[in-house]
Design a protein that fits this description.
- This protein is mainly alpha-helical.
- The chain has a domain of 155 residues.
- The strands form two sheets. The protein has a three-stranded mixed β-sheet with strand order 1-3-2, covered by helices on one side. Strands 4-5 form a two-stranded antiparallel sheet.
- Strand 2 and strand 3 form a beta hairpin.
- It is globular.
- Bound molecules: zinc ion (ZN).
- The site of zinc ion has 4 residues, from helix 5 and helix 6.
- Zinc ion binds next to helix 5 and helix 6.
């Protein structure tokens, strides 16, 4: 287990002279390895090699987090490449990152993506969490589809913005979309064929269409053709409705997300907390 320190919890430690004396001995031992808290040898190796990832972690750390632990506990067959969330702990807020298995370059890009979620959260460009209004009336299948829809709504524009930032920082976000494409094609014929899952697919593919990618969306539409032949057309309709621009402020990102919610017919089904007013909309 590694230790790293930042300005937020140093003052509390300094309150005890004995602890300070102890740290004077311990700090040099950990000095070379202070930047990364991960139990995964691969993740630690990636940080040793990737200066741009170390730099990104250094930028994220001061965003009110005492620690950014990175756990590699998702399997390569998992639908999720990674996820992250802030967690309250006795010593302060921790930004908890979980990433998938894969090649070094893939995992490096997943970590960069998750760290940039912390940056966007700091800039308040997130959409917060959604509440399902009539959850009790839904079957287990539809509830799962609804949760997928909320996840896509909250991440759609954030992920597209993250891609552009990653590219500017010299990362390769297209690798993540290649992986996503393979997962979507593999799952195309096993998803439940309900109308809510159709909306889930429409939203997912619209969100993928606005990300940085090297492939044509037709490769995925073809895989869905047998049960959802209108998919490409429905994605295009959503795209035309919300317009081509991304967003760059707390307010514009929330408005854009609400427009997307309307475009996929979820207005009146799901509410989100407006980050500016703190009211549910
Ligand atoms: Zn994301």
């Amino acid at each position: 287990m590694e230790l790293w320190f930042n300005e937020r919890f140093r003052p509390a430690i300094y309150q005890s002279g004995a602890v300070v004396l102890g740290l004077l001995v311990i700090i040099p031992m950990f000095a070379a390895d202070q930047t990364i808290n991960s139990s995964s040898p691969q993740v630690r190796q990636i940080f040793v090699r990737s200066a741009k990832l170390r730099k990104l972690l250094d930028e994220v750390k001061p965003y009110g987090y005492v620690d950014v632990p990175i756990t590699q506990d998702l399997s390569s067959t998992d639908a999720s490449q990674g996820y992250s969330k802030p967690k309250s702990t006795p010593r302060g807020m921790v930004y908890d990152v979980h990433v998938s298995q894969g090649s070094d370059i893939f995992v490096e890009n997943v970590i960069a993506h998750e760290l940039l979620h912390a940056a966007l959260r700091h800039e308040r460009l997130g959409s917060g969490s959604g509440t399902i209004l009539r959850g009790r009336e839904l079957s287990a299948n539809d509830l799962a589809a609804m949760q997928g829809l909320i996840m896509s709504l909250t991440n759609c524009y954030q992920d597209a913005i993250i891609d552009r930032r990653m590219a500017k920082l010299g990362f390769n976000p297209q690798l993540l979309q290649d992986d996503e494409k393979s997962t979507l094609i593999a799952e195309a014929n096993v998803v439940p064929r309900t109308s809510l899952y159709k909306r889930d697919a429409t939203l997912m593919l619209y969100c993928l269409s606005i990300r940085l990618r090297k492939f044509e969306m037709d490769e995925i539409y073809t895989a869905y053709k047998s049960w959802y032949p209108e998919l490409a057309q429905d994605v295009q309709t959503v795209s035309n409705t919300v317009g081509p621009d991304l967003c760059d402020t707390e307010e514009s990102c929330f408005k854009k997300m609400l427009a997307l919610r309307k475009a996929v017919g979820l207005e009146g089904e799901v509410k989100f907390i407006n980050p500016t007013t703190n009211r549910k909309e």
